[in-house]
Design a protein that fits this description.
CATH topology of the largest domain: Ribosomal Protein S5, domain 2
Structural class: alpha+beta
CATH class of the largest domain: Alpha Beta
Radius of gyration: 19 Å
Number of domains: 2
Distance between the termini: 39 Å
């Protein structure tokens, strides 16, 4: 048995903002993927995954929802026969490792599942997101459902607000000098503590005002520029966003990267932003000259996401 592949995702814009109902743009990232597999002889890693699936099965048994039903007897039997999730997606890196797992389980065991092949109306997208939110809450305590949705559909998704999503197209990649890239912090981040810090900060009126006025404004402008291919304007807005994040989200940025972050803003060679909840994992970068940026950041591991 080998299930279909489900890809990692990258939230290009909108981290934390989508919790507060501003815009977001998520794209599939097919460098990393995962699939359900079965084996009689499990390696240590596969055995751990199999044990985690047992815990997840227990969670689904107790899940109270009228949105979806699962073929749980079949799921349990497969786990007993040595099923595991074979994944190259790094965990705690903000690229949706649990999202791909959730997508694969919905795909295999959900009754009357919504498929990519049908006409994906806004209502269907919203229903999928709600189902995935409940399914993924097992991993993070609270989930928007966006990671599994992106992984399941393998399409760029534009989040206009909590209740308004659409599958979207992004400009095709060009062989230009510019790039979106990932910078590996080589630290594993955890979503839940970061979200807790954010929620506590949201109790502060000044912080809320900054989110509503600055963070949301630049995030929305970046998404608009990116989708319309306005690269010149995009870099101006990403610079503003990078500054806002450095000034207001310091706990989410590993301390070792504060200077590197500031250096990008000062030199205009590259701009950094959070990738997912932060606290470690990947940091997302934007540059108009990827070759030059690679030399400047030669001490770090960079991965190319998108060229323009």
């Amino acid at each position: 048995m080998k299930g279909p592949l489900f890809y990692a995702k990258i939230l290009l814009f909108g981290e934390y903002g989508i919790i507060k109902d501003s815009k977001g743009l998520a794209i599939p990232y097919n460098t990393y993927q995962g699939a359900l597999k079965k084996s009689k002889n499990l390696s240590e890693v596969s055995k751990k995954s199999n044990e985690n699936l047992k815990k997840y099965f227990d969670y689904l048994v107790g899940l109270e929802t009228t949105l979806v039903t699962f073929r749980l007897v079949e799921f349990k039997k497969d786990i007993e026969e040595g099923m595991y999730f074979d994944s190259s997606i790094p965990q705690g890196y903000g690229v949706g490792s649990s999202g791909a797992l959730v997508a694969s389980i919905y795909d295999k065991y959900a009754d009357d599942k919504i498929t990519v092949l049908e006409n994906l109306t806004r209502d269907k997208l919203l229903k999928l997101k709600q189902i995935f939110s409940k399914m993924e809450s097992f991993f993070h305590g609270k989930s928007s459902g966006l990671d599994p949705l992106n992984s399941y559909l393998s399409l760029p998704i534009l989040i206009n607000s909590k209740d308004n999503l659409e599958a979207t197209g992004i400009p095709s990649q060009k062989e230009g000098k510019g790039a979106v890239f990932l910078l590996d912090s080589e630290i594993i981040g955890e979503t839940e503590p970061m979200v807790t810090i954010f929620m506590n900060k949201m109790k502060n009126e000044g912080f809320r005002k900054m989110i509503d006025e600055d963070f949301a404004k630049y995030t929305d402008a970046c998404i608009d520029d990116f989708l319309h291919g306005n690269m010149k304007s995009l870099f101006g807005n990403v610079k503003h966003l990078s500054k806002v994040v450095l000034d207001n989200f310091k706990p989410m940025i590993p301390t070792a990267f504060h200077k590197v972050w500031q250096k990008g803003i000062d030199s205009n060679d590259y701009y950094l932003k959070l990738c997912g909840s932060g606290g470690g994992g990947y940091i997302l970068g934007f540059t108009e000259n990827f070759e030059k940026t690679k030399k400047i950041l030669k001490d770090y591991k960079l991965e190319l996401v998108y060229r323009f």
